[in-house]
Amino acid sequence: MVTSPYQAYARAQATTSTQGELLVLLYRGASRFAAKARLQLRDGDLEGAHNSLMRAQEIVLELVHGLKPNGDPAVDNLCGLHTYIYRILYEANVRKRGELIDQAVGQLRDLLETWERIVMPGRHPEAGRIVSIDRHC
Length: 137
Prior knowledge:
Blueprint lengths: L4 H12 L2 H24 L3 H22 L5 H23 L2 H22 L18
Helix pairs in contact: 2-3, 2-5, 3-4, 4-5
């Protein structure tokens, strides 16, 4: 199987990152796919929007599965928030509603910014991003 340079880079980045950095990568991916779905929906590409929303949903589910609720209110609340975001993405995909995507993207970007500040405290929030995302999609 031939891998592209991008795939090789992504694999290397995932295998050499800390757990915190992996969380940031997951939030970046979910935000990016949801924002991409919003643009695809706007352009009438329903299949592309569906596929992008499915990718975002899969990432959020992965984040939910990693939380393991244990009675700690902070963990349980974070798990509930991720479940809520998943439901918004699911409804956005079923109904093809841009405002629902916008709501999910806003939540994901807030979480991304929080984790970037925790994991990379010395960096400016925008500096570590691989792909710049327009917050006004």
